[in-house]
Amino acid sequence: MLIRNTSKLANFLRFGIIGGFGTIVNLVVFISCVKFTQWTGIDPSMPLISNAFLNYSLRLEHVFIATAFVIANIFNYTMNRRFNFGSNARRNKTGLAKFMIIGILACIIQILIFAKLTRPGPLQLNPSIFDSSSGLRNIKYWGQVISIALVMPINFTLNKFWTFGGENGYTK
After folding, report:
1. What is the pTM assigned to this prediction?
2. 108-133 pLDDT, tens digit each
3. Distance, CA of 111 to CA of 61 (rounded, Å)
4. Structural domains in the chain (count)
5. Parent domain of 45
6. What residue stretches are annotated with the GtrA/DPMS transmembrane domain (predicted)?
7. Based on C-alpha coordinates, what's the Rg of the chain?
8. CA distance 112 to 36
9. Of all helices (H) and strands (E), which one includes residue 63?
């Protein structure tokens, strides 16, 4: 029992370490996109598609989240397949597709959390602290970090059992 639980903990820790590197990839892409649009004079909070019925707008920053997510998700899949969950030929054909399906679900949840943390409302991060006076006080950067952290357990659980086979002996 102890060995089994230790193995599960090690599995989760490896997933977390790989996810940490994936988070760095994600943040580099996201921050680069935000900085580039700001440099060109475009507001990353600019609505692209408004939805009055849901009181929600698809914003340029949401596209940046999705772009950063896809790049980081491919990185995470490759690293997890190699170092955490193992691989075989059969699963290599469908593994990335499953990983991306789960990733899309996680990305949608992440965008919704990000929107709640960065837009006015009861869950908005405190604007007097996160006033964008420096990179460490940028509400968008912290919204991105927090939303990634909140989505990680869902992402891990679904990928462990569906993408990488879970308890059936495929995990390392």
Report:
1. 0.75
2. 999 999 999 998 899 999 999 998 88
3. 9
4. 1
5. 2-168
6. 14-164
7. 18
8. 23
9. helix 60-83
